[in-house]
Amino acid sequence: MNKQINKAVVLSFLAQGIAVLVNLVYTPLMIRILGQNEYGLYQVVQSVVNYLNLMNFGFTGAYISFYAREKAKPNSEEGIARLNGMFLRIFSVITLISVLAGLFLLRHIDLLGTRLTVDDYAVARKLMLLLVLNLAVSFPNAVFTVYIAANERFVFKQAAAILLYVLIPVCNLPLLYLGQGSVGVAAVTLGLSVLRLTLNMVYCLKKLHMRFSFGRFDKALFFSLVGFTFFIFLSDVVDQLNTNVDKFLLVRLMGADAVAVFSVSFELSTYFTFCSWVIPEMYTPEANRIVAEEKDDVKLTALFTRIGRYNNYILLLVLTGFILVGRPFIRLWVGEGYETSYLAGVVLMLARYIPAVQTMGVNIQNAKNMHRPRSVIYFGIACVNVALSILLIRRWGVVGTSLGTLAAVVLGAGLFMNIYYHRWIGLNVLTFWKSLLRWIPLACALCLAAWFLCRNLVLDTWPRLLLFILLYTLVYLLLLWTAGMRKAEKEEIRQALSGLWRR
């Protein structure tokens, strides 16, 4: 790993660790101050507004690929400036459209269903206005964010993320204790988004000397972008369906309290996948470079497998740990009334495991411009997920909607995507899974042994729970180091840590 990636990986894990720690402390306080109903209401409005994220039409996912193509050409600076100008124009229009769409949602707030009270709708209107404005700020910020990533300036990106993660509770908690409720939280979210935009803009213009060219509108470039991004957009539709439709269905069929219970399990499953994007993000420019310059599937398979193994180590630690201590953790974390969140959380983590361990594959197929079939198949499976969730919610409530997600993801990410990677993308999936299967049985055996030995332990206080988590983590890492990792991986970790220490 080069110096920038080496530092950035450590900073990324630090940032994700801080984000998880902040949320673990901040979320239960937020739930207790707001109450289950208002917390559920905030989650529902946020999920509805998140659908407007689809208006980026996949352009953010296309930038790095087009940047790599322009970088490989003679006179690349001018081409990159034209690309930047095109993206800024596009996202300026998208910002305007998102505000208009948000105003439409505001006028039709009754789409949230009939199970909300008049007071709930009054709060929901204020939340929606603030969150729509927050979304509008995020679109122009995307132009600068992807430019930073394309230039592999990951250290700045992660340092800024750490700052914002820390500021969230620092700014929100005083407002919550002053009685500003979820509206105060939404206002802080908007303020921090403006700060993030300002930081990224200044860094790109002053430090990276980002240039824009606004000459004649390049129709060829625009239609090339549209052709590339349409199926990324379709994939984004799928992600939004799988991510937010459950909350929308739950609020209509069961009410805001059910959304609060589901949101706890959903948030925990999000923490589960946090780290799966850390290392792949650093190697996205490399994957695009290999595709643009070398076209070497053997190298891409090696990269896919290497990153997948690291993700596998982290994900199995979190998954097996949650299976062991999830129940007492949730009880201590958010209190009584969220018992169902444990089982729903396990189901959602299982659903996210395969896509999370194969995160690098998505970056590779985007680099190859071969993401179209995935998007189409995923869209069909997402529709099945919606239909299944409606049926299963009526039978099993919060757990039912999680089971619908699991079934859809197993079909899409588990079956179809692995066939597609192997036969069409050129990635050797058999090599990938053979490499990962060395550790999976050992991790499962450790989890089973720990459950058998400690099944009668009473983890009813934070010190007891944290001590158990620490001991399990140490045993897991010891077993991983002695029986799971390859010599090359151990050496890579030694070099990364020693290099970081020297600097």
What does this structure look like?
The mean pLDDT is 82. 85% of the residues lie in helices and 0% in strands. It is globular and about 65 Å long. The chain has 2 domains: 1-217, no CATH class; 231-503, no CATH class. By secondary structure, the chain is mostly helical. The protein contains 18 helices and no strands.
Low-pLDDT parts are none
Helix share bin: over 70%
Question: What is the count of β-strands?
Answer: 0
Largest sheet: none
Helix and strand content put the structural class at mainly alpha
Summarize the structure.
The chain is mainly α and 503 residues long. The protein is 85% helix and 0% strand.
Furnish the topology, listing elements before pairings.
Layout: H1 3-34, H2 36-50, H3 59-71, H4 76-107, H5 118-150, H6 154-177, H7 181-207, H8 219-253, H9 256-274, H10 278-294, H11 297-334, H12 340-357, H13 359-367, H14 372-425, H15 429-436, H16 440-454, H17 462-484, H18 487-502
Helix pairs in contact: 1-2, 1-6, 1-10, 2-5, 2-8, 2-9, 3-4, 3-5, 3-8, 3-10, 4-5, 5-7, 6-7, 8-9, 8-14, 9-12, 10-11, 10-13, 11-12, 11-13, 11-15, 11-16, 11-17, 12-14, 16-17
